[in-house]
Amino acid sequence: MSGPVRPYVITGGRSRPSRNVLALESLVSTVPGADTGEAELNREHQRILALCGRLLAIAEIAAHLHLPLSVVKVLVGDLWDLGAVQVLPPATAVHRPPDVPQAERLPTSLLEEVLVGLRQLR
């Protein structure tokens, strides 16, 4: 009788990634032809590599694998350390010019349109 594997087993007991820069919006893609050498990749590592043939956010990977974000961050960190994946910071951090305030105000009319659209979904 085998049940679901506990998250601490998947990560080898680690609760934090080796790199503390992984946000849930960070984009991950596999590095074609990367040699992981003799590294021991578990099933979840392999599944991440298979999923990230196209660019995916950490949150999307977690959703596809039905794993907690913290576990996915540890696993992606492992793969990043091996050079098997490339990790890009969230787009908002990359593309925002330095002179633009972080919290720009959206036009009220746009917010009202979004609110009307959401109400219509009910």
Structure characterization notes:
It is a single chain. The protein is elongated, with a radius of gyration of 18 Å. A 3-stranded antiparallel β-sheet has the order 2-1-3. It is built from 6 helices and 3 strands; from the N terminus they run αβαβααβαα. The model has no long low-confidence stretch (mean pLDDT 81). It folds into 2 domains: 7-89, no CATH class; 96-122. It has 122 residues and is mainly α. α2 (43-51) crosses α4 and α3 (58-65) packs across α4 (69-82). The longest helix has 14 residues, at 69-82.
Placed side by side, the strands forming the largest sheet appear as 2-1-3
The number of strands is 3
- One letter per element, helices H and strands E, the order comes to HEHEHHEHH
What class do helices, strands and sheet pairing give? mainly alpha
Output the number of helix runs.
6
Largest sheet: 3 strands, antiparallel
Indicate the percent of residues in helices: 40-55%
Envelope shape: elongated
End-to-end separation in angstroms reads 43 Å
Whole-angstrom Rg: 18 Å
- Classify the beta-strand content into a percent band: 5-15%
Count of the domains: 2
